[in-house]
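Most newcomers find our protein records easier to grasp once they have seen one. To make this concrete, we reproduce a full record directly below:

===
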Amino acid sequence: MPRSVVIVGGGPRGTGVLERLAASAPEFVDALDVHLVDPYPDGAGRIWREDQSELLWMNSMAADVTMFTDDSVQCEGPIVPGPSLYEWAVAVRDGELEGETVPDGPVGDELRALGPATFATRRLQSHYLDFVLRRVLATLPPQVRVHRHRTRAVGLRRGAPDVVLLDGGGELPADVLVLASGHLDAAPTEDEAALAAHAEAHGLRYFPPEQTTDSDLDRIPAGETVIARGMGLAFVDLMVLLFEGRGGRFHDRGDGTLDYVPSGREPVVHVGSGRGVPYHAKTEYALRAPRAPLPRFLGPDEIAGFVRRGSVDLRRDVWPLMAKEVGWAYYHELFLGHPDRVRGVWDDFALRYAALDWYTPAMWELVVGFVPDPRDRLDFERMDRPLEDVCAPDLETLQERLRSYVLDDLERHVDDRYTAELGAFVGLLSAFAQVAELAGTTALTPRSRAQDLAWWQNFFSSLASGPPGPRLRQLLALSRAGYVVFLGAGLQVTPVEGGFRATTASLDRLAVTAQTFVEARLSSPSVSRSDDPMLHGLHAEGLLDEETLREEHTDASGAAVHAADAAVAHSGASVTLHNTGLVRVRTSDFRLIDAEGRPDRCRFAIGPHTNVRLPGAFTRPNTNALSFRANDAVARAVLTEVAPAALAYGA
């Protein structure tokens, strides 16, 4: 009788795991049933479903999006290549894919015009993801059958095998369960609940953290003053839907500068965040020089050394090597791609650079000596906290400062005079992969796992996962027209009589009050607050654990000392518990860890809700993508459990 695997989540992550199961199945099993459970469209899932505004784009260029492994991917399973988003679009419009036709309507028009550097709409991406899943299904090995269930998994009944309970009363046998649900919603935190209660009591509007496309933005009246917290991709969606989505349009002056033409239905959005600036624009050019050889200063040997050492602090011990790695890739491109902007030659600079630590006066002197223009020198502290020294006396002064910042960012990411920025991006990807390997061990201290990894994920996203350049041009146009007002860094929002009050570190004793407050961000992860019934049930039964990291405090003599930390879940006399809110999995193969700390043989989880932090489910081709390697690791661990040898020996 075939063994049964249930994958909860049929979006890009679930599809990626299914593709890897199909690729390796002939090596392990004679017969396997795989059940793909998701109430949202096959392949696309909730985030990438076609049923959303045609104004919403991806934040990666079409040539930089693939769901298929290639020869760069270092994994145990077979490599099964396939087209990127751009290659798929070309093949469809050229009639080279049997059974594939150009979609009707605006999506078809977009497909016909798509270029490699185009930022496709999410609606077009939904068609690509649908194709990927259909291709996986059409090329299944004879050992594998896939059954799709357009519904929600709501629980698990333990047994031999387990039974997955479906919304509406259906049941599926599950010898193995894989949770691949992507971003999950959660019940409000105490602070969010207080803000919602304040809004309810005073007739205000509060929009909690959620997918912007799911928010009822029609509730915001024209002319309304709005406070928005968050300046990442959720804010970009908010901006698009509140302005262009209400009939506003942008007029190009002819030099790339945009003017906003209002519809008369606009609110006025006052926006700030912790960092106080938008995510950096995506680069829109290619490297001029060959890619820097990476890893160079943070590779497998260095990670192995940290693992042997243990008690590693990411910011103190690893970040200097991460920064040096990114700097190596940045300066490699600057010297070899733009020799007119440096003094001397790369070989001389590289020899001296390699011998120096990143945070030393000698390193800075080296850079200053070889790189005459300060704008060409890499400064991570300024990138992380660009408004550190800003405290404007009035809003207009702050607007000029922020517009100048955004204009500079645009120039650096769309003008090929600054391709060193792309070099840094390549270095960031290398550093991200190595840190992910380190995070998969017990080497980092609990505090560093809980706090520094979150800082790094946020910093990486701000540098590498920003919006397309045109979105920042639109933001500037809205700012000049007075419809978007920048509040700056360190945003604090508090309930006050008749509204919400916003203050920031970037404004000197100034505040903005509004009756509408939008959390322009996703909800923070939380197993205990999750409204997903499957996750909630597994947690209640102790089959799934929320990651809580135990930090013990001692003085120089080794004696226990008291630790106070208001940002953590609990403090004891000599122990601090850091609750990350993430699903705890074994990092080598993504098996669930239960409440007793034991890895589960037959239950797995993969995605942003777990404590293994991965980039997106799809990625750039030819980059040895970490996500694809993770999908492969899960798939082969699953197949090991359903293989006849595992049944025979109870392994």
Notes: The two ends are 19 Å apart (CA to CA). The longest helix spans residues 314-337.
